[in-house]
Amino acid sequence: MRTLSFTFTTALFSLGLLSSCGGKATDDTASSNAETDADADADADADADVDECADQAEQIPCGDISGDPDASFSGRLVDEAGAPVSGAAVQLCSSLQCKQTDTNAAGVFSYSNVESGCYALDAHHVDQHTIKFLTFIELEPEQNRVLDADIVLYDGATESNFSGSDTIDTQGLSLSVTEDGYKAPFGQQGGPSVGAVRVDPTASGLPFDMIQGEVVGMWYLGPWSTELQPGWAFTATGLDSVSAGDTVQVLSGDYFGFGWDIGGTVTASTDGEVSLSSENCQGIHFLSTLLLVKQ
Question: With contact defined as beta carbons under 8 Å apart, do 40 and 91 qualify?
């Protein structure tokens, strides 16, 4: 009898505890559900913003290749001191395929028997940790094109990690970075980060076949080919060729979209400085070659 009484009493006590806690458990569940719904709504809004901006994206397209494989193309890669870079990986890509080669001991790369049309050109040196460049070139039928200037490979940038939203100042750029819409390339390790190398466009050797206007600012950004939708706002300073009132177009190399992404067009309000907001889907949309082009 004593054991039965103890069990019954314990059961009543446990039932009382459950009853007294029932209201709190319900409140916590409701609060948790509300937070989950709010997070889901925020994610849905962010996805809608990304989709809307993707639909509004503007580009200077590279175009297709066509005709007989009767063109050739060559150039030379050097380091910042002007010495040839051997063993650098070079890619010449159409919208359908990429042709890879390595530079020889003299830093020279070459392609033969290629179709005429537009190609993406990128290169870097893995072992020497140079930052990758991207540009677009056009070949005419039966053309034997040799680049007039050597293309400079620059040492890789030290990347700054970030979380949430922040402002990062680097190499004459003030970047309004955010994790929202940060889509790193396949295989990229770690969290969101950004690095920048400022480049003198007149000394880079990079061909700008599709660009109309004067390139007055240039950076190589990384991790290479990271997608940013919606875009990042920024301010660029130290632009000697920019005066107040100048119109400047912002372009980012879009490897997978195969062309120059148009981040926006702004009017400089101050000598030597350009600012672009991220409103209306403007801004930097890819961490790649960034160009500021005076119209």
Answer: no
Q: For residue 15, give both structure tokens.
A: 């039932």
State how far the Cα of 251 lies from the Cα of 293, in Å rounded to an integer.
8
With beta carbons less than 8 A apart as the criterion, state whether 179 and 164 touch. Answer: yes
- Number of residues that make up the chain: 295
Instruction: Provide the β-strand partners of residue 25.
Output: none
Task: Report pTM.
Answer: 0.83
Note down the domain range covering 270.
Answer: 160-294
A 10 A CB-CB count for 136 gives: 25
Q: Are strands 289-294 and 214-222 parallel, antiparallel or unpaired?
A: antiparallel
Which DSSP string do the residues of 124-189 spell out, in sequence order?
Answer: E-TTTTBPPEEEEEEE-TT-EEE-SSPEEPPBPPPPEE--SEEEEEETTEEEEEESTTEEPPTT--
Q: Which domain-ending residue is among 152, 171, 199?
A: 152
The rounded radius of gyration (Å) of the Cα atoms in the chain is 27
pLDDT digits (tens, 9 = 90+) for 185-240: 888 888 999 999 999 999 999 999 999 999 999 999 999 999 999 899 999 999 99
Dump pLDDT digits (tens) for 61-104.
Answer: 999 999 899 999 999 999 999 999 999 999 999 988 999 999 99
Q: Both 173 and 288 in a single domain?
A: yes
Number of domains in the chain: 2
